[in-house]
Design goal:
The chain is α+β, with helices and mostly antiparallel strands and about 110 residues long. It has a single domain, classed as HIT family, subunit A, CATH 3.30.428. The protein has three helices and five strands, in the order H-E-E-E-H-E-H-E. It has a five-stranded antiparallel beta sheet, with helices on one face. A hairpin with a 7-residue loop joins strand 2 and strand 3. The radius of gyration is 14 Å and the shape is globular. The site of guanosine-5'-monophosphate (5GP) has 13 residues, from strand 2. The site of guanosine-5'-monophosphate has 13 residues, from strand 2.
Length: about 110
């Protein structure tokens, strides 16, 4: 099912895009939970982590590597950051197109809420 992120990929609605390659798009979260809050998504629509299939290893890995590269580029890799994949209801997922949340710019707490 199409989500708001498909519209961002298709440039049908605006987003503050910070990174793009053939398979990955990254843009600032509209409701940031930290000074840096960027979402890394695959251009291929996959609803949740549960729908990742054999063959998607590289795609999932690209999200993580793109986030780490962004952290290094932006200069907060050493200080630290958090990545999160919310999954389904208990995980707090609201958009059913997988996305890696990259949060940085403040100390994170544990356990998360
Ligand atoms: P989830 O709750 O599914 O893990 O995260 C979805 C995220 O997408 C939320 O943090 C929410 O603020 C963000 N979001 C929802 N709609 C839009 C949008 O239209 N543009 C952007 N940039 N972020 C969005």
């Amino acid at each position: 099912m199409a989500t708001i992120f498909d519209k961002i990929i298709a440039r049908e609605i605006p987003a503050d895009i910070v990174y793009e390659d053939e398979q990955v798009l990254a843009f600032r979260d509209i409701n940031p939970q930290a000074p840096v809050h960027v979402l890394f998504i695959p251009k291929k629509p996959v609803a949740t982590l549960n729908e990742l299939a054999p063959g998607d290893e590289a795609l999932a890995g690209r999200l993580v590597l793109a986030a780490a590269a962004y952290a290094k580029r932006e200069g907060f890799a050493e200080k630290g950051y958090r990545v999160v994949f919310n999954t389904n209801g208990d995980g707090g997922q609201s958009v059913y197109h997988i996305h890696l949340h990259l949060l940085a710019g403040r100390a994170m707490h544990w356990p998360p809420g």
